Amino acid sequence: MTIDYDRIYVGGEWTLPTSSDKITVSSASTEDILGSVPAATRADVDAAVGAARHAFDDPSGWAQWEPSRRQAALERFAVALVARRDEFVHRVSGQNGMPAKIGKLTEGAVPANIVRYYATLATKLEGEQTRKSLVKGTTVVRKEPLGVVAAIVPWNFPQILSFFKIAPALAAGCTVVLKPASETVLDAFLIAEAAHEAELPPGVLNVIAGSGRVVGDHLVTHPGVDKVGFTGSTEVGQHIGAQCGRLIRPVTLELGGKSAAVVLDDVDADAFTRELFETSLINSGQSCFISTRILLPRSRYTELVEAITETVRQYPVGDPFERSTMIGPLVSSAQRDIVESYIKKGQAEGGRITTGGGRPKGLDRGWYVEPTIIADVDNKAAVSREEIFGPVLALIPYEDDNDAIAIANDSDYGLGGTVWTTDVERGLSVARRVKTGSIGVNGFTLDLGAPFGGVKRSGLGRELGPEGLAAYQQFQSIYLPE
Ligand code: NAP
Ligand code: MG
């Protein structure tokens, strides 16, 4: 049975779209059709932004409520999300192939947690501060919600990346129009069902789907939008950033990455390979922050290449709903084409495949690629410089710590990374010299309480932590002569 919506969620109601066009999604593992939602038009964007604008501008509405009142509504929202947890995982894994075991810990669990985290945080931060002027009199410095937010998200972790925007925005008092990627629309419409059940006030959260080029672009540039929150490719991020620059519109951009695992020469090889999956290959390599360049000391190169190869060779590849599966299919046939072309390029550039490189046997349906290790790679190679977004790691030898740090920093990107060592102090001092927004020593798990984002071509601004709430607020200073 397919899941089909014939309405969009605008102004607190399931309303008829202006066109009968549909976005149809298929399973990454079986290629069967899973369902469809309406393809929004520019007129539907106008309606969604209008509803969000109306809700935000209401003189006694959401933006004006005490944070504790918003918290109560957001708690109902969290409860409605938890009630649909399994269905979220089911829809996400069906659409993008994410192993459901990973989906449970991320897509299924994080949305309600992050909604509760921000709803509570907003009640604790002071909204107004009275400062004695440095000249004369006093100034009341207040924080207010930024306004109507356009949230545009990709398909790789569609739920958590939506809630990195929705949760702080709503807690701050903003209203939101969410546009998911066309590969993952069904889980986004389930967010609308949860919002509806929670009785969020009409227009506070609106959900529409449609192509980025038409619907996304109209949303980003819409005169009724005050802030754009985007996660996706660097190319689209550049375009959105340029549009926002022209409009002097605040924007947060979470873009691509090509992060490095700096494996120091005192590493415990077992401890490192145990964590390799989570830090370098989670979600079949379709994750922005993972360490996909593995920098290995020449003094232990052969041993470490072998250890990595043996580890990755054993990862079970298959059906995302099978409990033992670690590597699922890629999101689409187009994504598989991209990944396979990089594997070829890596070899043409002198890389040596130590495991993988092809399609797994016996999986004739679905967009599978074997987890692939390319050793002896130069940091100048395309597979070292460009985001592949698949289960492919480049192994790069280095001479000493300074050389490793220089290679790690020789990248157009700067999102994540890891350092591996038995000496945590040494690891920390290396981590401080790596120019990325986040980095882990001997492991990495995204911390919802700490700022996350990139430098260079990895983006602009930060999500998560108190800093992620501030991204949906602005300051107003009210001067009093007395
Ligand atoms: P994308 O093409 O950047 O799309 C991300 C979102 O932006 C989608 O909702 C997309 O809509 C929308 N969009 C596209 N063009 C737009 C425009 N001109 N104006 C406004 N919105 C627009 O990313 P993707 O297709 O999901 O993935 C492509 C590549 O991006 C991947 O191969 C990977 O390298 C990278 N990526 C990075 C991250 C990350 O977290 N850093 C996440 C996902 C992907 P439609 O798709 O519906 O057209
Ligand atoms: Mg796209």
Q: Could you characterize what this model shows?
A:
The protein has 482 residues and is α/β, with parallel strands linked by helices. It folds into two domains: 3-255 and 457-480, Aldehyde Dehydrogenase, Chain A, domain 1, CATH 3.40.605; 259-447, Aldehyde Dehydrogenase, Chain A, domain 2. The protein is built from 16 helices and 21 strands. The strands form five sheets. It has a seven-stranded mixed sheet with strand order 15-16-17-14-13-18-19, sandwiched between helices. A six-stranded mixed sheet has the order 10-9-8-11-12-20, with helices on both faces. Strand 8 (148-152), helix 6 and strand 9 form a beta-alpha-beta unit. Helix 10 (269-281) crosses helix 11 (301-313). The mean pLDDT is 98. NADP nicotinamide-adenine-dinucleotide phosphate is lined by residues 152-156, 179, 181-182, 211-213, 216-217, 220, 231-233, 236, 239-240, 254-256, 288, 387, 389.
